[in-house]
Amino acid sequence: MKRGFDILAALGGLAVLWPLLLGVGLAVRLGSPGPAIHWSRRVGRDNRIFAMPKFRSMRTDTPDVATHLLEDPERWVTPLGRFLRRSSLDELPQLWSVLVGHMSLVGPRPALFNQDDLVALRTAEGVHRLRPGITGWAQINGRDELPIPEKVKLDAEYLRRMSLAFDLAILARTLRAAIHARGVSH
């Protein structure tokens, strides 16, 4: 049932949001040199690597590490990128990943390929069996502000509580958080 909901929601989202996606993509291209979409190597279900699309919010020469690991992260973010990250519009291309089955609307956020500490803790808790999500329980409970062990604790709680009703509640809270740009540090 979760996969069916994901497919219908992703198709509906892409059908309704295509003008916004096109406009944001054009703004990214005009705002800084480089492609509109950045394909990031992420850890997916069963710890398989997949390419996750995001609207590019950082310079093309940014090191491929988690933002919190960058020295002076603000110097890498493009002017439009600040807005895209705070509004979460940079995440919209991930509807494609939901449609093709690499991601779900709700689940643990996919780790970068080199976040070995996060991957190891999630694997120990069984969270690696889930499809990663565009949003998740940890996302609405702190986002960038949470230390890794706390994220994993919340991801494990999501695994235990997972249901369509819980997913719908997380999606509703995600919309509120995105509108208010809560929990985004860069």
CA-atom Rg in angstroms? 16 Å
Q: What order do the helices and strands follow?
A: HEEHHEEHEHH
- Kindly report how far apart the N and C termini lie: 35 Å
Shape: globular
This entry's quaternary arrangement is single chain
Strand content: 5-15%
Uncertain runs are: none
Largest sheet: 3 strands, antiparallel
Task: Provide the residue-averaged pLDDT.
Answer: 92
What structural category characterises the helix and strand content? alpha+beta
Number of helices: 6
Task: Characterise the protein shown here.
With 186 residues, the chain is an alpha+beta fold. The chain has six helices and five strands, in the order αββααββαβαα. The chain has a three-stranded antiparallel beta sheet with strand order 2-1-4. A hairpin with a 5-residue loop joins strand 1 and strand 2 (49-55). Helix 1 (2-31) runs antiparallel to helix 3 (94-100) and helix 4 (116-125) runs parallel beside helix 5. The protein is globular. The chain starts with a helix and ends in a 6-residue tail after the last helix.
